[in-house]
Amino acid sequence: MSLLEVSQLKVSYPTRDGVFDVVRDLSFELDEADSLGIAGESGSGKSQTALAIMGLLPANAQVGGSIRLDGQELIGESERVLDRLRGKSLAMVFQDPMSALNPYMTVGRQIGEVLELHQGMSANEAAKRSCELLQMTGIDEPGRRSKAYPHQFSGGQRQRILIAMALACGPRLLIADEPTTALDVTVQKKILELLRSLCKETGTALILISHDLAVLSGMCRNLMIMYGGREMERGPSQRVLLQPTHPYTAALLRTLEDLHGGAGALAVIPGEPPDLRNPPGGCPFHPRCSEVLPHCSKEIPRTRPVRRIGDKQSHWVACHLEQEQ
Ligand code: SF4
Question: Per residue in 273-306, pLDDT tens?
């Protein structure tokens, strides 16, 4: 059994203008201490998938399918149980550390609260452990700095504090959603390196969401490419990047090469991302696909393994083109 099993996940938002299906029929697994990078353009469903796993979708979201953590079904679970799991088994690092931290509470107290709530520590024990966690994430003089407020830290330091908070209770799975987007390139590298080494050290499984395929391939053993709320391709990172099978993955890689000679943020693929209220029939990428086949607009391609490597580490793709060969 994998640590995380997502099966036929569907997330929709009913609105006055119609129903937005933001995640559709998404299935994947993640093993203990493993890592998965999720990439795709804005609106591809990456963050909605992360929020669904965390049980943090807005109240008006409709969720279907199954999300199992260590065999325990999370969809439909009570808020009380999810609260207990968040922090203890599941943790998340958000894009904007300032909005994720309480500006009126010292950072030591914020980390301490998590430890008292989920680990049952006394205030003194939690204060001591908070300093250790700050030190572990590279904050100098942790005793003094733990008494400071979020605005007294730089953006990079605030992200380190969020990582300390997320790892405070030794979660089994950490989800980081664009954790370095707001930071400059040098700080980005240091934060990502910290994230990777701490997850490795603690045996925490990692889901990293980013627009940056180069970053994901360096950080994660596996990569999943999403488009229009669906999975397009998934497999070992190096294989997906070096031998992309799906035309959308290939298009993403071409935009990277065009912009940065092979490394950097996503540029634009010609055409518009799908209107989620009224998505195109068949393959969601067909209006932009340079290799479109006559039936691509009618039939949704099923996800199937294209290369099997060992038992589990398969390479999956959802494309009629692959099925024709
Ligand atoms: Fe292109 Fe058809 Fe494959 Fe979709 S299914 S990516 S439209 S070839």
Answer: 888 888 899 999 999 999 999 999 999 999 988 8
| HSE-CB of 162 using CA atoms within 13 angstroms | 30
Answer yes or no: is the C-beta of 292 below 6 A from any ligand 1 atom.
yes
The domain segmentation of the chain, as residue ranges, is 4-104+149-324
| H/E segment holding residue 235 | strand 230-236
> Which atom of ligand 1 is nearest the CA belonging to 246?
6
Reported as a single tens digit per residue, the pLDDT across 152-185 is 999 889 999 999 999 888 899 999 999 887 778 8
Query: Which residue is closest in CA terms to ligand 1's atom 5?
Result: 319
Distance in Å, CA 50 to ligand 1 centroid? 26
CA of 296 relative to ligand 1 center, distance in Å: 6
- CATH 1.10.287.110 is right for the domain spanning 4-104+149-324: no
> Which residues of the chain register pLDDT less than 70?
257-267, 308-313, 322-325
Taking the whole predicted model, whether its pTM rises above 0.85 is answered as yes
Distance CA 186, CA 193 (A): 11
Ligand 1 mean position, distance from CA 260 (Å): 26
Q: Cα(314)–Cα(304) distance, rounded to whole angstroms?
A: 9
